[in-house]
Amino acid sequence: MDLDALRKLAGITPTKPLTSLNIDQAIAERRREMMKNVMKESREETLELQKLPYKTSELAPVLSKENVEYHYNILSAGYVNRYNNKEGDADFNYGGAKLHNLFWQQLKPAKQSSNYDGYAKQTIDANYGDLKGFTEALVKEAMTIQGSGWVYMTKTGTIKTTPNQSYKTEILMPIDMWEHSFTDYIPAKDAKSKYIEGIIKLIDWDAINRRLEV
Ligand SMILES: [Fe+2]
Question: Where along the chain do its domains lie?
């Protein structure tokens, strides 16, 4: 590729001679500008706390009404409101809002029977044998979180963790591993595993399958 073509690619008006080094710098600078604009656009997004598709009492006995009300009404709403009001760390609040919306919307009342089926089931069974194997893998991965964070499944069935409230677009099914999520299970030694086993029973697999269709 000649210099003129490179200049065009970098969006540079050829007012001065360019070396390949400063063309590289100019391309990098232009990329940074484009990324800044993308970030700015996402910053201007107004977030909302999505309404729960069940009553706050309906996740019991996996999650108590008290736990859900505090976690949803106070903590989850807090991320959304602080982000929209431009208070505190924007990345942290943006991630917190996104992750909590995904978390709450993927659950169903504890009394509803499991609808484990479809593409989610195929993906999980292919990777972990069955739901039990998947749950064990989630617990194992969740134990690697240092401090606060989330364990999640990607669209391809990989299990990963993300620290604090770091949102990533690959997150399909996130499970909150901050201590405020599993207060109902503390002080049991196996609080985290019992909590994850409970959450898996609450998963609305239709909701997960709908996310996979996007
Ligand atoms: Fe949380």
Answer: 3-41, 65-213
| 179 Cα–ligand 1 center, Å | 8
Cα of 147 vs centre of ligand 1, distance in Å, is 13
| C-alpha distance from residue 170 to each of 6, 56, 141, 174 (Å) | 33, 28, 17, 10
Q: How far is CA 59 from CA 69, 112, 118, 203, in A?
A: 11, 10, 23, 10
* Of 46, 47, 66, 45, residue with least CA distance to 56: 66
CA of 21 to the centre of ligand 1 (A): 47
Token representation of residue 56:
């706050």
Third-level CATH fold of 65-213: minor pseudopilin epsh fold (3.55.40)
Strand partners, 176: 150
Tokens encoding 172: 């399909």
The CA–CA distances, whole Å, from 29 to 6, 15, 25, 26, 61 equal 14, 17, 6, 5, 54
Q: What are the pLDDT digits (tens) for 136-185?
A: 999 999 999 999 999 999 999 999 999 999 999 999 999 999 999 999 99
Encode pLDDT of 46-77 as tens digits.
Answer: 999 999 999 999 999 999 999 999 999 999 99
